[in-house]
């Protein structure tokens, strides 16, 4: 009976991680569309950020299942490498935009940022009573993401009011640096979980 309960709890936790993984992949695809529509470097960067979130939840999911460890380690390193290359590319693009400003739809940015704040806030609220360590981590992260979208929202409003276009590439670089940091944390976690 005890074993059965433990098994149920384990499945429940793996299930919520899987839901978080799918949500992040959906966010990532939506943000990529948003980045293309608004031409905002910050939203494009956040698309890679959501993909990075999906990657870390994916790694957590594989470790939770305790299966195919070797493949989750190799996969973790490959995807982290992709994130490093992607974020360096975003930083280079943002620097180019600082030198030569691009036309960005601030109204579109504001709209996407409002949606980002709302969705992340709902997700943070829905996961607030997580019992496992993973669920707590997911919840904290959702709160972090809510605040990062709030920063994009404020940035977009300020840009619309003042026309100070440097905020978009600066936000983009900040998000890209965060993705870089996360890629290294992913690798570290993969090595630590190896046992
Ligand atoms: Zn995130």
Low-confidence stretches: 1-5
The CATH C-level name is: Mainly Alpha
What do the pLDDT scores average to? 85
CATH topology: the name is Alpha-lytic protease prodomain-like
- The backbone outline, from C-alpha atoms, is globular
- Kindly provide the radius of gyration, computed on alpha-carbon positions and rounded to a whole number of angstroms: 18 Å
Ligand catalogue = zinc ion
Quickly count the helices.
6
Question: In words, what does this structure look like?
Answer:
This protein is mainly alpha-helical and 195 residues long. The protein has one domain: Alpha-lytic protease prodomain-like (Up-down Bundle). The chain is 88% helix and 0% strand. Helix 1 runs antiparallel to helix 4, helix 2 packs antiparallel against helix 3 and helix 2 packs parallel to helix 6. The longest helix has 37 residues. The N terminus is likely disordered. Zinc ion binds next to helix 2 and helix 5.
